[in-house]
Design goal:
Number of helices: 4
Number of domains: 1
Helix content: 40-55%
Distance between the termini: 44 Å
Largest sheet: 5 strands, antiparallel
Number of strands: 5
Shape: elongated
Structural class: alpha+beta
Length: about 110
């Protein structure tokens, strides 16, 4: 029983000291947005102007994130041992979790 308590305590300490920052979350968000653009998920069924903007993103991916980021809302929730990030925008949403210097966004951007 002591061994289990020690292992769980070490795991909790490791999670606390390796929790990703909001800057790390932005980097993962950028990656997820670029994947969504590559799959043509964002902007489907939108106006012509938005469709043209997304086409421009495919041509200039470095400038794309700044354009799309302005349409996204992020909510950071610090849960002591991990960071939760809720992303909404473009009629899509994603929930990401960060722990041990890693972010996971199960399902990526979903309609909603």
């Amino acid at each position: 029983m002591r061994f289990l308590i020690v292992v769980l305590s070490l795991a909790a300490l490791g999670a606390y000291f390796t929790k990703p920052s909001e800057g790390d979350a932005e980097a993962v968000l950028r990656e997820e947005v670029m994947i969504a653009v590559a799959k043509r998920e964002l902007g489907d069924g939108q106006s012509t102007a938005e469709t043209l903007a997304l086409a421009a993103c495919k041509l200039r991916p470095d400038d794309c994130y700044d354009l799309l980021r302005s349409g996204l809302k992020l909510a950071y929730t610090d849960r002591t041992l991990f960071l939760r990030v809720d992303v909404t925008g473009f009629e899509r949403r994603a929930t990401c979790y960060g722990a041990y210097n890693t972010f996971v966004c199960p399902g990526g951007f979903k309609e909603g």
